[in-house]
Amino acid sequence: MRQLLGTLMLLIGSLVLAVEPIPVVGLVWWPADSDDPRYTFGRETEACLASAIGTEAPLIRLVPHQTIRETLYPRLEPATQPPSEEAFAELLARTDVQDRLRRFGLTHLVAFTGGTTAPPFRGAILCGGGFGAGGCLGFAWQDKTTTLAAAVWNLERRERVVEEKELNKGTSIVPAFVLPLPLMADTHSAACHVLGRRIAHDLIGLPDSHGSMAPRR
User: Fold this and answer.
1) Is there a domain that residue 171 lies in?
2) Tens digit of pLDDT for each residue in 159-178?
């Protein structure tokens, strides 16, 4: 019964899309400063979000970060980018900025930021050898935390309509008995895919994991 209800919700969502214009959504990550630790996760997060949104709502047309950056040049260059998240929101709220994006055909903009923190490995692994034999023995682990945030802007209504955040924690372990066996926690991918699915729901009102319909933003 629950599966049938989910299928009906998807059908309703498809019918709504057939009537309403298909969203054209720009993806833009912040900050643009390569010295900021979050910068290194920008491209990886963009690719992951694009994949998650495309899987959840394949009719949405996505415009990549580089295109948005060129459209708003020079406002998102390292030397001219907003110095804080609040200033970034103020930039996107400006009428001239939104008009430039709308002339490009965008209906929505998803601005995202965040990354993964991981302290050094703890524990110990000792390796050695001699007389034709060798190996390792020990155990090491590392805690990882990924925090991602995204704001969805409706450019036709000229307002930020929703903010989403996702946090994922995990532990990478490396047991070693003769040979080390790394088991790495992929907290970034897990957090990003959840965030991407939520954004897709926000954009076109797809049913969430509980079967309820989200309002289209």
Assistant:
1) no
2) 889 999 999 999 999 999 98
